[in-house]
């Protein structure tokens, strides 16, 4: 049987596509890196895949706002393709810049009536780019990407990762529906690791089906145990990092 196939969508400024493709392949899938222009010219490329991932980076230099130009390009040229991919049961993953894009396209956390975004990823509360490791708590509910994950570490690297919503009522409704499946958690000292001031410590969110996930931390940067800053030579160097579970769960879900 052919292994599940993942389409890793890239654009000018994307810089995590190689690592993301490697993570899917490390998890047993087949990854294909595809430029957004190539997909726009041949949308049938998506039909051959079961997983679509928009990886991290700085698409189009994050001009105007993070992910804005790529989101506009997708809405203008590929809206039907992406909606069809989602509606036929394909898995969609947006990491960092990809999370920003999913929210702005309306593929994730959109008003069901107007299709306008209910949420946004705003500039960090510190006003600075943040690159560090954080502690996370998964509340998977129906989110297939997070099965078996509880508390774990991942790195973040972003300047616009502060999760905000349109209104307090929208936040309460999304929270009650179990859409906030990943949150920044306290570290061993009890101090919060929220790096950007996200409302409710939200680090990731999914759609109602659990098959579309956006998150700010980078699971593709922790697929090997040796990538963690506290790794010691006494530990198994071939052991997987916690981030690999995100990709393994995706591959297993469509196998």
Overall pLDDT level:
95
- Helix and strand element order: EHEHEHHEHEEEEHEEEH
Strand neighbour order, sheet with most strands? 2-1-3-4-11-10-9-6-7
The termini sit apart by 9 Å
Q: DSSP strand (E) fraction?
A: 15-25%
Indicate the percent of residues in helices: 10-25%
Query: How is the biggest beta sheet arranged?
Result: 9 strands, mixed
Q: Going by CATH, what is the homologous superfamily?
A: Class I glutamine amidotransferase (GATase) domain
Enumerate how many helices there are, as a single number: 7
Q: What's the domain count?
A: 1
> Any idea of the CATH class?
Alpha Beta
- Helices and strands: which structural class? alpha/beta
Computed CA radius of gyration, to the nearest angstrom? 17 Å
Shape: globular
Number of DSSP-assigned strands:
11
CATH architecture descriptor name: 3-Layer(aba) Sandwich
Show unreliable segments: none
Q: Layout of helices and strands, plus pairs?
A:
Blueprint: E1 5-10, H1 17-26, E2 30-35, H2 36-41, E3 51-54, H3 68-77, H4 79-87, E4 91-95, H5 97-105, E5 119-122, E6 130-138, E7 151-158, E8 162-165, H6 168-176, E9 182-184, E10 202-206, E11 212-215, H7 244-253
Parallel strand pairs: 1-2, 1-3, 3-4, 4-11
Antiparallel strand pairs: 5-8, 6-7, 6-9, 9-10, 10-11
Helix pairs in contact: 3-5
């Amino acid at each position: 049987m052919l292994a599940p196939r993942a389409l890793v969508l890239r654009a000018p400024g994307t810089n995590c596509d190689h690592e993301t493709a490697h993570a899917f392949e490390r998890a047993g899938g087949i990854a294909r890196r595809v430029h957004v222009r190539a997909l726009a010219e041949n949308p049938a490329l998506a039909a051959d895949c079961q997983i679509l991932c928009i990886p991290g980076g700085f698409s189009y230099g994050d001009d105007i706002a993070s992910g804005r130009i790529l989101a506009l390009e997708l809405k203008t040229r590929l809206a039907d393709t992406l909606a069809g991919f989602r509606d036929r049961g394909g898995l969609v993953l947006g990491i960092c810049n990809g999370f920003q894009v999913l929210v702005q396209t309306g593929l994730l956390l959109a008003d069901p009536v107007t299709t306008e975004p209910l949420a946004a990823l705003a500039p960090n509360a510190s006003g600075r780019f943040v690159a560090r490791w954080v502690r996370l708590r998964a509340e998977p509910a129906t989110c297939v990407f997070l099965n078996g994950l509880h508390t774990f570490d991942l790195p973040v690297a972003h300047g616009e990762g502060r999760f905000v919503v349109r209104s307090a009522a929208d936040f309460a409704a999304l929270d009650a529906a179990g859409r906030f499946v990943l949150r920044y958690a306290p570290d061993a000292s009890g101090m919060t690791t929220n790096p950007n001031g996200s409302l409710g410590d939200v680090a990731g969110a999914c759609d109602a089906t659990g098959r579309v996930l956006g998150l700010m931390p980078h699971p593709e940067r922790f697929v090997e145990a040796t990538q963690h800053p506290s790794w010691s030579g006494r530990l198994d160097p071939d052991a997987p990092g916690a981030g690999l579970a995100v990709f393994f769960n995706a591959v297993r879900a469509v196998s």
